[in-house]
Design a protein that fits this description.
This protein has about 350 residues and is an alpha/beta fold. Helix 1 runs parallel beside helix 3 and helix 6 runs parallel beside helix 7. The protein starts with 5 loop residues before the first strand and ends with a helix.
Length: about 350
């Protein structure tokens, strides 16, 4: 066993802003480093921090971006294309809501918006290659999500058709990431068609088991679904190539449960929390990741409904650092282990 989880790192999406130190690439990298982070995950859509078009066209630009991060004391962990990935597949019921994820020029134009999103993903592949990254993080988008609850009864073929179309849209993108030598790690997330293990398997089957179709593991989304987030690692560890460290809690009452009754986040039975304030057993999570030789980054994603983000970021760096496991290179009982001796083994077994 040789892999040791890298970190702590932080996803910058929830922190980027118009005021210093959150409004430029250099200053936000310095802020993260000062908190103790060793890596940063880039929201590729945020022009205050990163120019995706330029990154796709110019390795020189990517070298400059990496150099600034390195000078500030952090590495780039992955590019995020969550917002663009969401727009690869949008059920019409969500058209107006998701228009906000795209430039105004394609608002109200679903086909043009999708084409824009696909091109963004292709540029993400090239930019990741220029940055020397081996993984990226994204969403699949959703066509079937409005039908997640089977009432009215779904017509035969509805879900199969949705996943076939999802695969048709993603297969060329996955091929582009294959050409770039980079995995797409889909965040398994309610509101996506891949929201649990069963649906990820359906998607994986639909794209022919594409080797670049991987998972961004985030246990918080499984707590809110009452899904076994530790067994998930046992089942899918070979596909887990990225890791969002985010906490959550589910406190069902006589009034609400998993669906949380259309309540605002602070009043929901299921809600996201800052690290250590929720119910995720991160000691067990990091142990599982070490057991299965996960050797990439542990990246804080802050989405707490109560705590100030800067407090969550400050506490999160120490929290992740304290959960990192340096994997042992030897067994604890090596000092009493006898060497291999076939004759001795036969005598012990009474055979031969």
């Amino acid at each position: 066993m040789a892999g040791t989880v890298k970190g702590p790192a932080i996803f910058l999406a929830q922190f980027a802003g118009d005021s210093a130190p959150f409004n430029s690439w250099k200053s936000i990298c310095g802020w993260a480093a000062d908190l103790g982070y060793k890596g940063v995950q880039i929201p590729s859509w945020d022009g205050r921090l990163f120019d995706l078009v330029k990154a796709a066209l110019s390795k020189t630009y990517c070298d400059e971006v990496s150099g600034v991060a390195r000078e500030q004391g952090v590495a780039i962990t992955e590019l995020s294309t969550h917002l663009q990935g969401q727009l690869v597949a949008v059920n019409p019921v969500f058209d107006e809501g998701f228009d906000a994820f795209a430039p105004p020029s394609v608002h109200g134009k679903p086909k043009e918006r999708q084409a824009w999103a696909v091109e963004q993903l292709r540029m993400g592949a090239k930019a990741s290659q220029h940055l020397g990254l081996k993984a990226s993080v994204s969403f699949t988008g959703a066509l079937a999500w409005p039908f997640v609850y089977p009432w009215p009864p779904r017509p035969p073929g509805l879900i199969e058709g949705a996943f076939a179309e999802l695969a048709r849209r993603w297969k060329p993108i996955l091929d582009a990431y294959e050409d770039a030598g980079c995995d797409i790690c889909y965040e398994i997330h309610p509101s996506e068609d891949t929201f649990d293990g069963a649906t990820f398997e359906m998607f994986l089957d639909a794209v022919g088991g594409h080797k670049r179709a991987c998972i961004n593991y985030d246990p918080s989304h499984f707590v809110l679904q009452h899904l076994d987030y530790l067994e998930f690692i046992d089942i899918y560890h070979e596909r887990i190539k990225a890791f969002h460290v985010k906490d959550a809690e589910l406190n069902p009452t006589g009034r609400q449960g998993v669906y949380s009754g259309f309540q605002p986040w602070v009043n929901r039975a299921g809600r996201f929390r800052s690290l250590g304030d929720g119910q995720v057993n991160f000691g067990a999570v990091f142990s599982k990741m070490a057991q299965y030789d996960y050797n990439s980054w542990a990246v804080l994603e802050w989405e707490c409904c109560l705590k100030h983000p800067e407090d969550g970021a400050r506490e999160g760096a120490a929290f992740i650092k304290n959960h990192l496991i340096r994997v042992t290179e030897k067994s604890f009982d090596d000092f009493v282990t006898a060497g291999a001796d076939q004759k001795k083994i036969q005598r012990m077994l009474g055979v031969g």
